[in-house]
Amino acid sequence: MPESPEVEELASFLNERTRGLRVRSFDVMLPKALKSPVAGVEEIVGSTVTGVTRHAKMIDLAMTTDAGAPRHVIVHFGHDGWVLWHDSSPEGRSRVGEATLMARLRFGSDAAPGEGVDLTDAGQWKSLTVHIVPRPDEVPAVAKLGPDPLAGEVDTATFAALLAGRRKQIKALLQDQTALAGIGNAYSDEILHAARVSPVAHAANLTSDEVGRLYAATVQVLSAARDARRGVAPADLKAAKHAALTVHRKAGRACPVCGDEIRTFTFSGAAAQYCATCQTAGESLG
């Protein structure tokens, strides 16, 4: 699943290349992806892009219609969605490699067609969604977002307050977008390992020292990932993320800190990778 560091670089890439361009066409190939009336798609054609930003793990293509009305195309990638950029849009309308083409935006004019954006989904359930709204907060997933650590919206006190009294496993809480925005499965594993905190510890039971380490690790891991992704093309962002991970998806390998074996613990349909020596006082969670 895309997470905030990669989505931030994607938004920056798209902002540089689409700001000021007019939308030539907007085709939705898989109707279930569109969570707004079809009339909203018709309004987007002819609109001018005013900027592209990020809301947690979603991108926001802001536009102004021919009538001067603000519109936002909010894309939530789900588990396996992503964006492909084309300097010259292809004509095919089905699959993109192993992914399904969900929607396509083309910029330019009929006389001078230019760049294009493909919204794709490589997952089984096709969970990428598109909302077209006058304001971003009209999208429920945006309206419910908690503070975003990567955007500088969380300080030590705020972080501690978010955890205080929460009888919820800390890995799940880190991934709860209504509590903290932008963190998913991969970076929650990386953060917990860096902070030396067990993924199954309840937030309410963490000591002040553990909370402090967790806050510092959250900021450091996300900021370092964002900085490392700068300048990476959208097509390469996922691979760059996976190559840089030290714990997530590294089960069976040696912990980079202590050399113990990285293990996997599965709960509630999700999996966590962790180091027993660094995070659980040697106890296996299996």
Q: What is the third-level CATH name, the topology of the largest domain?
A: N-terminal domain of MutM-like DNA repair proteins
How much helix, percentage-wise, in residues?
25-40%
CATH classification class of the largest domain: Alpha Beta
CATH superfamily of the largest domain: MutM-like, N-terminal
Question: Describe it for me?
Answer:
This protein has 2 domains: 4-143, Alpha-Beta Barrel (N-terminal domain of MutM-like DNA repair proteins), CATH 3.20.190.10; 149-279, Helicase, Ruva Protein, domain 3 (Orthogonal Bundle). It starts with a helix and ends in a 7-residue tail after the last helix. It has helices at residues 4-18, 38-44, 140-143, 156-163, 170-175, 185-195, 208-229, 234-244, 276-279, and strands spanning 23-28, 48-55, 58-64, 70-76, 81-86, 95-96, 99-108, 113-121, 129-133, 262-267, 270-275. The radius of gyration is 20 Å and the shape is elongated. Helix 1 (4-18) packs antiparallel against helix 8, helix 4 (156-163) packs across helix 7 and helix 6 packs across helix 7 (208-229). With 286 residues, the chain is α+β, with helices and mostly antiparallel strands. Helices cover 31% and strands 25% of the residues. It catalyses: Hydrolysis of DNA containing ring-opened 7-methylguanine residues, releasing 2,6-diamino-4-hydroxy-5-(N-methyl)formamidopyrimidine. Keywords: DNA damage, DNA repair, DNA-binding, Glycosidase, Hydrolase, Lyase, Metal-binding, Multifunctional enzyme, Zinc, Zinc-finger. It comes from Microbacterium lacus.
